[in-house]
């Protein structure tokens, strides 16, 4: 625990720890006897497969470090914690998303003052070359969550990974000096991978975690796509504004010139693409149809794809930067990447996320195979791309076409939101990741537990988790990562993961 923790946060944290020590939690694995439950931590340490769980600082503050570790080991046989140490988003940090049902553990209220940032201690010497210096998360005073969790986790034989993601707030000091720019010259909320300020920040962050803390590894996630996907609205979050595609900042323009790309032609191409998407969404059918008009736009403006490749290469270069920065200070630290769920839905994005290429700079991958929330997400993606690019077809045909592209055999569109995707989807995506990496990097499928979905959409059930876990290991997974964050998981569903591990032969029953 940090020596500089403010007194209020310190008192709250110690009070939580004391309460946990006075009333230890007994939470056996689903279907396990008391003797089996008592042996769960020992089984977790001896498993040769990684059994990870993602958790944010708030859970340890609310429930106490020892109590949370008890739950992880006794419920699910966890042997690795992916601790959310850097993010400005609620996806991996904070309590339950406001408006969603609170889980059956933790503080029974929403953290409406959530801010985010770095939940460890930024050491200034690592950030001298970037303007992005003031990133300390204010949520828990000066609590350093790595200092709080690492010793206790290590004493139990648990590994600890830093889990950081590419999500920012617009009010971070000097963030405007690193943001992307759309082709109309407006700043975007995301940061540019080619901007030296951001590149130096990533280098410093990785070196800071690797050198300042005895962590076992670092996982980085970047859930955003390039200008082509943005312009088309090809996302499970719904169609976006085609005029906001980027990045077209000075650093990207400079790189374009080095590649022989005519910048003005690229601007003209994305302007034409914007007009196509807006007209298509209004149902204004081109003479030769929507898809033909899209292809004609690409042929008239090949710079569209050239700029997409430029952006994609920048993202891949950032992965190399992260890998090399961490390895430069500690060769033994494991570096891996969270592969966005869009990889399961979009043929365009899948083409850019080539596991064999990515494995050149990675020790492991968390392949997102969230099948429970995957139904609503796939349904949203299909409706988004059908609204413009594939408007010549009805949504059922667009879905059938994507099943062919992606090698799935899942539910019809009307059943996807409430039904989710099957365990077979988990099996196929895990197998594809393993074949893609060809043994160059470990594959840890991300199994979703209680990720929020909308009204009348799929909710996680214990049997879903159990079957997804078994499917991942049937496909040869090197481990799993229970996702998205412990603070939104229900305990019965977490225990079902433990039962799935027993049935898969990963843990002894």
Strand content: 5-15%
| Counted beta strands | 12
In CATH, what is the homologous superfamily?
A: Glycosidases
* CATH fold-level name: TIM Barrel
The assigned structural class equals alpha/beta
Rg over CA atoms = 23 Å
Textual characterization of the structure:
This protein has 509 residues and is of the alpha/beta class. The chain contains 20 helices and twelve strands. It has helices spanning 7-22, 34-38, 40-46, 57-63, 65-76, 145-155, 196-212, 227-232, 250-258, 263-281, 290-300, 303-329, 347-352, 355-358, 374-386, 395-406, 416-419, 423-437, 462-474, 491-503; strands at residues 50-56, 80-87, 117-118, 159-165, 179-181, 187-191, 217-221, 334-339, 364-367, 442-443, 446-448, 479-483. The strands form two sheets. Strands 1, 2, 3, 4, 7, 8, 9, 10, 11 and 12 form a ten-stranded mixed sheet that branches. It has a two-stranded antiparallel sheet with strand order 5-6. A hairpin with a 5-residue loop joins strand 5 (179-181) and strand 6 (187-191). The longest helix has 27 residues, at 303-329. The chain is globular. The model is unreliable at 1-11 and 13-45 (pLDDT under 50).
